[in-house]
Amino acid sequence: MEETSVFEKFELHLDSTAKDFLKETVKWAYFIAIIGFVGIAFLVLIAIFAGAIFSTMGSTMPGFGGGSVGAIFSFIYLLLAGLYFFPVYYLFKFASNGKKAFRENDSEALTSSFSYLKSHYKFIGILMIIMLAFYGLAIVFGVLGALFGR
Known about the structure:
The protein has a domain at 19-121.
């Protein structure tokens, strides 16, 4: 005979205060996601116009680099916009599914909403690990450069 653990029997119920907190969280997440999409649009616009701006600067200031610097900046800004898109998209899907869940009293939409929230935080966590690794490498190479530069 199989025994079931206490956790398998456990069913979570939200009281009205928890639901109110979650509703407010969904509203703020929606707002932050919209602002994030606007930020991504600005990054793409900067990427588009970076080539023109830097080629103009290159023609007025000799030795600046001109179009090649603009192309590099365009690539960097497009890369940042692409990287920023995924956490903003996951946050938007969390908010929109959360709104639907409360509007229609839909448990599946709430589950989907939490799935997107998990994806949002997973993406941010992995990005944080990558950035910490880059910082660690920069510190190591900085110390090595300082030691060998003497």
